[in-house]
Amino acid sequence: MKRIILIIITILLDLLAVACLFLTYGPISYFRDLWITTSMTTMNHRYLARILYSEDTIYKVLSENYLKEVEENTDPNKVELTEIVETEHYESIYEEQILKKEEGNDIYKVIPLSGNGYKGYMVVVYDPSRIDLAMTQYLGKRGELLTEMSNRLSFQVGINAGGFADAGGYGNGGTPTGTVIQDGEILFRGPETGWTGGFIGFTKDHILMLTKDSPEQAIANGMWDAVEFGPFLIVNGKRAIARGNGGWGISSRTVIAQRQDGIVLFLVIDGRQPGYSIGINMVDLTNLLVRYKAYNAANLDGGASTDLVINGRLINRPCANSVNGERWIPNAWVVK
């Protein structure tokens, strides 16, 4: 009997090994493309792609799966802050979700999201003048948990914003990547990521501004608060063009967007948690934003950094290696 069980286990292990080899090196490229694009767009886990594939294979996959951004800056004149008037008739269920406010809350609304393999939340912010850029109080030394920031600053809603230097995978979140602009001045110049994107922030008139200009030019053009990240997913109503799976694999995501009526959308998608939410790729993510009429939208730091905090309470299920899944971060977009 024991011998039969041993034979069955051996056969099952052999079948599993064959299946893994087929997925990794077989003729169907889906798994290979997904594995490489997901690994290579992280800051600290690119080795996962290099363990299985050669540099030539990685280069070929990345050249066939990418996102081509719209080559223009946002036009602030195309966004007009409009008073939201509720009605009994909406053009779609998505418009009703956005425009129909929750009783007793004129500031924001939380919409749970779910789709093929992902779960997350969208926060609808009705008054963009309440949005601010919060920074760690230990800038250059270490970051803060988003719940820690919330308790200190007493904001109502917060999502993580820009990336940070994380040498060796053990960074403390205190050194933002790229340049940070706050109150119309350059606050911090950090190391460059080399990734696509640019400045993501707001003008003094509370219009979401996406630009690839220099920080000095961005400020001259009206940028008030901004972090440097990307890619830009939608610019002036034009979506980025995706090739293959969009080149960023599947992961947790954090996005900030604005509609033409001025409503701002905070979007968080959980990931890296099989059985709950593995994440979303850039193609499906952009489709989701278009569904809710995002006119300008940009990807923020995702992965283990993706956080949503409301009134001091962690709402989503982040995947960092900590007690509650949170990670030290350098900055956050918050609703006061």
If you had to describe this structure to a student in words, what would you say it looks like?
The chain is an alpha+beta fold. The chain folds into two domains: 2-64, no CATH class; 68-335, no CATH class. It contains eight helices and 19 strands. The chain has a seven-stranded antiparallel sheet with strand order 2-3-15-14-16-11-12, covered by helices on one side. A five-stranded antiparallel sheet has the order 4-19-5-17-18, with helices on one face. The termini are far apart. The mean pLDDT is 90.
Q: Give the uncertain stretches in residue-range form.
A: none
Shape field:
globular
Question: β content, as a range?
Answer: 25-35%
SSE pattern: HHHHEHEEEHEEEEEHEEEEEEHEEEE
Quaternary form: single chain
Distance between the termini: 67 Å
Q: How many independent structural domains?
A: 2
Tally of helical segments = 8
**How would a crystallographer describe the biggest sheet?**
7 strands, antiparallel
Chain-averaged pLDDT: 90
Strand order of the largest sheet: 2-3-15-14-16-11-12
Determine the fraction of residues in helical runs and give it as a percent range: 10-25%
> What's the β-strand tally?
19
Rg is: 21 Å
Structural class: alpha+beta
